Amino acid sequence: MTADILSWVLLLAIAAYACGGGVDYGAGFWDLLAGGAARGRRPRWLIDHAMAPVWEVNNVWLVFVLVLMWTGFPDFFQTVFTALWLPLALAAVGMVLRGAGFALRKPTRRLAARRVYGAVFAVASLLTPFFLGTVIGSVASGRVKPGTVASADAWANPTSIVAGLLAVCATAVLGAVFLSADARRFGAHDLVGYFALRARIAVAALVVVGAVGLAVTADDASYVHHGLTHGWGLLLVLLSAASGAVTAVLVAGPALGWARYSAVAAVALAVGAWGVAQRPYLVPTSLTVQDAAGASATLQWMLIVALVALVLIGPAVTVLYRLDTRGVLEPLTDEDVTK
Amino acid sequence: MMAFTLASHIMLVPFGVALPFITLVMHHRGLRKADPTAMLLARRWSAVMAVQFAVGVVTGTVLSFEFGLLWPGMMGRWGDVFGLGFGVEAWAFFLEAILIAIYLYGWRRLKPWTHFWLGVPLPLTALMGAFGIIAANSWMNTPQGFQLDQAGNPVNVHVQQAIFTPMFGPEYWHFVVAMFLTAGYVVAGVYAVGWLRGRRDRYHRLGFTVPFTVAAILTPLQFFLGDNIARQIYHKQPIKFAAAELVWDTDTHVPEYLFGRLQEDGTVKGGLKIPQLDSILAGFTPDTQVTGLSSVPAADRPTATQATIVHWAFDLMATIGSVLILLALWYAWCWWRHRDLPKSRWFFRCAAIAGAASVFTVECGWITTEVGRQPWIVYQNMRVSEAVTPTGAASLWTMFGVVAAVYVLIFGAFLTVLLKMRTRWRLAGGGTVAAESPETDTPYGPRPELATTAAQSPTSAEGPGRAPGDSE
């Protein structure tokens, strides 16, 4: 029972990271495609401005996912990290490069140095979601069984690759939608349309990759495929697709702010669909939630800690996002630190 | 590899835990006395905090990845026993990330006191985070709170016992005080260098005094805590104590070696031998029996080389700690007699070195606790070799190479950026550089009295970079 609740908490945390982190990575993705130093100056300025106050918080979701995994489901953690060693290691390297690139680009002045940091930031933004996506794909395809040793087969397969691409597309959608809304908030009206167009292209790409994914998983990951095309899983998939469509419509119109919610809903619902589809397994057909669960005393305490933390963190997150959307959060300028 | 990333991360920890506190102290002073110099210092430190925290987040995330990438065996078997500490840490860290974002980005638009009070919980969340991590580490040192079934898997997990292990209390306070101490000395060290270079204005005076006072008050306290933890180790982890003190045979009237190398046959080469002192330190009388390394089979104790490393780390830590006490006493004496900073240039030279030395000490302390536990990863329950990932050594080393290169680059870039910021601030203080940024309104809106006082106190300055030689 506790294990079930915790597995839902885990899924929620993954969804939160997919949305929060996805916006970040998406911004990095568009940074990569923003063109040369002159052409890409304004989009990059917006990306820096929009991401700075919240990207660290977004990153912490991932730490939380990992901690929840190893405390609540140690066997699952061991299995995943042994079998999918390489993609996870690459994702970790990508994350280091990305964070460092982003953090160090801002205080740097010289164009050449900024280019280096910027390129690092952008390329890593592409790699990390891709590899994290492949990890999810590998788990979903059931190739990762307890005791599997690290091998390319575990993650270099159709389902994993498609899941990786899906993750990249999803981050691109999120990034573009949020940046478009931020552009309006910061009064950069030329960029509103710029990112709205890109959001629509990304939604189109997402639809294509998603369709390919459904086709591929039919044979390659039959358990999850069955879950996705029947019952609750199907419902969530349809809702997710509908949210995606709504996003594409809203993003170009006056209700741009709402497109953010629909985009987040689309991604969160997709993650939810995946979770529902592989019930009651953590790793389809070999490791159930119950089997993987850790000691029950720890699980109960984990829930208590989570509840206490929720009471503390809830208000703080609300304050942060409210301050951020009201434009109260601004970085210190040089004036402030030189006077 | 874990060692390397942990060692890198732990260098940032003092700043993550304690820099917010010191910045807040300065911030409070600035607000209370409407002191523009203090406010400027607080703002600059928070700018450094921003970059540092970003790097800290990244290294921290990588660390949690590495638990899985390197120690799947340990996490798989023990994760549910001692993972709760990490759970606490994750939430605390989450809260810290949120608050730090508000604090860093709130300078310009929030009301001054609102802004300050929003920053106040920061050190508390940092302490919570430390609580979680130390709970996990002290569990690895003195594991308890579970029973083993036939297959050797832990059952009947007792959570309170697993968190509040015998080593937890000593380790926690020793660690927390060490963090505040280190951050204080390092920040003060930066301004000590500026002072030595002839920048003797109020800005440097204040930038030196506040962090140095924090650190100086804590130094004697740390001495007692350090002594206490050593005695706890003597009781709870006798083999680690034996390694730290190079005790080979279990005996009474054990001599204390200062430095020296342990040989394979159990003799100690070099070093200064003080008869009976080790027994006295451990139990206050020469008759105290101290367990030796040879009391357990060779497979269950650190090798001679490892013991020597532990011993050196331990001795260096103790030595530096003692020297820092003298420095703190010097400072206290001058303050008591003259209500002023010491005049001697040597004092400032020592203070400048103290920053680097205390970072070094943190590394030593960490080496003592981790290497001293060899060959166990979970003391007397799991060996390092059982916990490590089955992935081939070749790919592990490749990975390590990549990570090491990346870390060197990141830390290099981190220092460069800090130095650049410093140079920019110093130039700007001299009034030679106009701000390049398009946004130029003052934080907290216009405050005329602030502007006039600012004009009177020249602030040509060295910003918070790091003390030279700090990049080991």
UniProtKB/TrEMBL annotation, chain A:
It is a multi-pass membrane protein. This is Cytochrome d ubiquinol oxidase subunit II. It is found in: Cell membrane. Its main location: membrane. PANTHER family: CYTOCHROME BD2 SUBUNIT II. It holds the Pfam family Cyt_bd_oxida_II. The keyword Manganese does not apply. The chain crosses the membrane at residues 6-33, 85-104, 116-140, 160-179, 191-218, 230-251, 258-277, 297-321. Keywords: Cell membrane, Membrane, Transmembrane, Transmembrane helix. Belongs to the cytochrome ubiquinol oxidase subunit 2 family. InterPro entries: Cyt-d_oxidase_su2.
From TrEMBL, chain B:
It is found in: Cell membrane. InterPro entries: Cyt-d_ubiquinol_oxidase_su_1. Keywords: Cell membrane, Electron transport, Heme, Iron, Membrane, Metal-binding, Transmembrane, Transmembrane helix, Transport. The keyword Iron applies. Residues 432-472 are annotated as: Disordered. Its main location: membrane. The chain crosses the membrane at residues 6-26, 47-69, 81-104, 116-136, 172-194, 206-225, 309-334, 346-368, 396-419. It comes from the Bacteria. Belongs to the cytochrome ubiquinol oxidase subunit 1 family. This is Cytochrome ubiquinol oxidase subunit I. It comes from Kitasatospora herbaricolor.
